[in-house]
Amino acid sequence: MIYLIAHWLGFEGPLGNLVRYQTFRAGAVLMTALLIGLLIGPKFISMLRVRQGKGQPIRADGPKTHLAKTGTPTMGGLMILTSLLISMVLWMDLRNPFAWACMAVTVGFGFIGFLDDYDKVTKRSHKGVSGKVRLLAEFVVAGIAAWIIVDQVGVTNIYVPFFSGRSIPLGPFYYVFAATVIVGFGNAVNLTDGLDGLATMPVIIAAGTFAIICYLAGRVDYAHYLGIPHVPGAGELAIFCTAIMGAGLAFLWFNAPPAAVFMGDTGSLALGGALGATAVASHHEIVLLIIGGLFVLETASVIIQVFFFKRTGKRVFRMAPIHHHFEQLGWPESTVVIRFWIVSIVFALLGLSTLKLR
């Protein structure tokens, strides 16, 4: 909105001149999302607590320390989505198709997660919406976003990191690949969201990393210098990523241990899908697996656990996802969370190294 108004006025005046720069708007959208989140947080949490009563159901077979969290409201992802979307509308160039593709995934996945959370809270069950129905809905949303992105760039190749100019052409199969990346990462973040603050900070770190990547990919000079694919218009997604950072930081203020609210599937699915859509739009899908390595490890631990248990009746981990394994080993929750944040930072630095190591 502010960008479009400044554009209509011809970027006149000091503020209008600043608004034309993506770097300025990236900082402005971060602060806007942060302030909105902090302002609406207390009332949002009070509303959720009143409406949900007993809050999110706590697994009886999980770590015993989690029983103390009984009564904590969920669906805090609504706070994230509210501050994220308002700040995006204010500062992004809404003529950019990438902005709409990423917004479609964020809102779509958030709505699917909301239905799942609502079902769990009202039925006092961990099952929620049927897994098949949820996956089908996610692939529909992700498929639409993939179509918008490919229609904009006209490229259906997977670019290989560490090699300049190397890519794998997929043709029409790229739509399936792109949708799978978006859906897969949405669910990976969802699996990671099991401890206070565990998923929030790694999402913020990954979003900050992709803000840098998107800005560089959108600049033809930097992209050619670094040997990464140049994606016209991708720089606008740097603003989207910093909006995620601002909204995430505001939520973390209330989600820090002991959490006053959980983000629920409403937030984790939306944020994971948003990161996946950003990676597809910037053609850094493989790099996403490095930057989001923590989420990949969490997902892999669940797959390994289920695979071996079905075939041998034995568990590889004491409990999956893997953050619960460390809790069962006796690590305090805060220790698990902070150490996983450190791991997430290391993966983000490895992902950034792909920009130059070619």
Written account of the structure:
- The protein has 358 residues and is mainly α.
- The protein has one domain.
- It has 15 helices and two strands.
- Strands 1-2 form a two-stranded antiparallel sheet.
- Strand 1 and strand 2 form a beta hairpin.
- The chain starts with a helix and ends in a 5-residue tail after the last helix.
- The mean pLDDT is 90.
Largest sheet: 2 strands, antiparallel
| SS strand fraction | under 5%
Q: Structural class of the secondary structure composition?
A: mainly alpha
Q: Mean of residue pLDDT?
A: 90
Which helices and strands, and how do they pair?
Layout: H1 2-8, H2 13-19, H3 22-52, H4 77-91, H5 97-123, H6 131-153, E1 157-159, E2 167-169, H7 173-192, H8 200-218, H9 220-226, H10 237-255, H11 264-281, H12 285-291, H13 293-312, H14 322-328, H15 333-353
Antiparallel strand pairs: 1-2
Short summary:
69% of the residues lie in helices and 2% in strands.
Structural descriptors:
single chain, 358 residues, mainly alpha, two-stranded antiparallel sheet, 2 strands, 69% helix, 2% strand
